Amino acid sequence: MASSSSTHIIPSSSSSSSSSSIFDSHSQWSYDVFLSFRGEDTRRSFTDHLYSALIRCNIKTFRDDESLRKGEEIAPELLQAIEESRIAVVVFSKNYAGSKWCLEELVKIIDCKEEREQMVIPIFYHVHPSEVRNQREIYKEAFTRHEENADEEKRGKIRRWKTAMREAGKLAGYDVKVDSYESKIIDDIIKEIRETIPLVLDVNENIVGMDSRLERLISGLEIQSNNDVRIVGVCGLGGIGKTTIITALCNKISNQFQRTSFLTNVREESTKDSGLLKLQQQLLDDTLGVRGQLTLKNIHEGVKVIKDRLSSKKVLVFLDDIDNRRELEHLVGKHSWFGHGSRIIITTRKKYLLTTHGVDYMYEVDKLNNVEALQLFCSYAFKQHLPGKGYLDLSTHVVRYADGLPLALKVLGSLLFGKGVKDWKSELKKLQEVPNMEITNVLKISYDGLDHTQKMIFLDIACFFKGGHVEIVTQILDGFGFKAESGINALMDRCLITISTDKKIEMHDSLAEMGKEIVYKECPNEPGDRSRLWKHEDVCRVLTRNTGTKKIEGMLLNDQFTSEYEIKFTSEAFKRMTRLRVLIVNNNQVQLSEDFAFPSHDLTSLTWVGYSLASLPSNFHVNSLVYLHLKETCVLQN
Fold this sequence. Notes:
Elements: E1 9-10, E2 31-36, H1 39-42, H2 46-56, E3 61-63, H3 76-83, E4 85-92, H4 100-115, E5 119-125, H5 129-134, H6 138-147, H7 152-169, E6 173-176, H8 182-196, H9 210-221, E7 230-235, H10 242-253, E8 259-263, H11 266-270, H12 275-288, H13 299-310, E9 315-322, H14 325-331, E10 343-348, H15 351-357, E11 361-364, H16 370-381, H17 392-402, H18 406-416, H19 421-433, H20 437-448, H21 452-465, H22 470-479, H23 484-493, E12 498-499, E13 505-506, H24 509-520, E14 532-533, H25 536-545, E15 554-557, E16 568-569, H26 571-574, E17 582-586, E18 591-592, E19 605-609, E20 627-631
């Protein structure tokens, strides 16, 4: 029970069952509250005021219509509404026991309390709880009238009514006397209901791998400790499932806090007109229950009110998709802003924001493993957990492409749903050439937040250095004047890359595809006018047609060449590539003319497998070179 004045609260006269498991499942409830009352007593007074207050607080409430109370039997709609309500509020008034429909409702409510763990809140309106519990005075008179000329069947009903009345009268509730301040009691009732009902947010039913991730996050929250305030950060690249995880977390733990606020899309909302002020307003409305009663003038007032009003409250606050320090400073500036036991959960793509804000625990969301990924993909592509007949190999191919990214698995699964094998193969072939834009647009948000040098480093890694040793790549990037250590750290802070235990730079395949798509769009029709080349068709076109330009800064030739693609490198083909920084040749079929020369003074990194000449060109510029790797070469060592 929520704390309240002793003149209002009637303590339970018998121990009640624990409600800790009441809200473990949310799908069974269609309503938050079912109101049971005698219309002629309170429909236009107390019950109407209570109903209005419930609706204002966005508490979904069922209030029956008089048309459902005609005939001898209670309407099926009423029975269903009682079953589907998580809380029943029973207003016992002077004439409540005189209505057989009210008594039938009460029997059903007590049944649901026992069978469905429904919570029951009795309100004793101008009657004493003992009158209800023991059927005395006016309630005794009502039952006497029911018993007049009652046959055996009706006497059986009356016994059930009395039993239900006795059970309800034992429960803790609210005593509304004639001289009580009814508005204060209604406020107390609303407070108790709001503290009991967890915030239930929509979570897609096709979620997998959630239990282990929630377990790690909950352990970092240390919910059992009420002596401190903890701020927890959840980070990861776009589409990894941060929002899904904290939404599931909210549904699981919100009933353990006095109030909950879930601020979504903070990055986007804060950029709108007065966006940050509106977020502060929502935070206060959610946590204080004062919607429409408190209006902030500016964000500075918002900070003061948050500190003053929430410092004594145990609240649960979610900030989803934080993008800069200003958002944190004006919404959850310090631990001291909130009462003991409060928990603040922040999601972001920028790890450094969590570090600088001083979070107590940071959870970086990891990608799905192969089993989880296949299950999630199949739930969208086949509406089941396993691939359809004849689709296993194709499904495995998609899962490999998505590389554990939930967003990619959902998008591609939805795209392929209901299509035949031929269409699947066509879509997969298309993905090899052009990445899915729905996925790319989500990932690109992090890229757009980089500065120019950081973008250059990201594109170099995406096109050339993914999987490279971080020390070697750092040396090469420093040779370009990119301040590599700072840039690599920035990419790590935004979850765009990670460094493996063996010091290799790892980038999710979808991010690498996005980077390559950015380069491709520099000039879709002419590869010679792009900054980086990595596809063998594009390289062949540029080198055989001599269409290279000064825009080309990097080139990669892998061992995908077949005899039909054999080409001969000529000085003419490279002549206009005066800004070439990176050249990687992993192919021993490339033949060089004896007079071959590198034209660029900017060449900083040269990797060549199968270099066919006995020496490097006499005019080879070494001033800028910081990395040289020749393998399977004919170069003579002096």
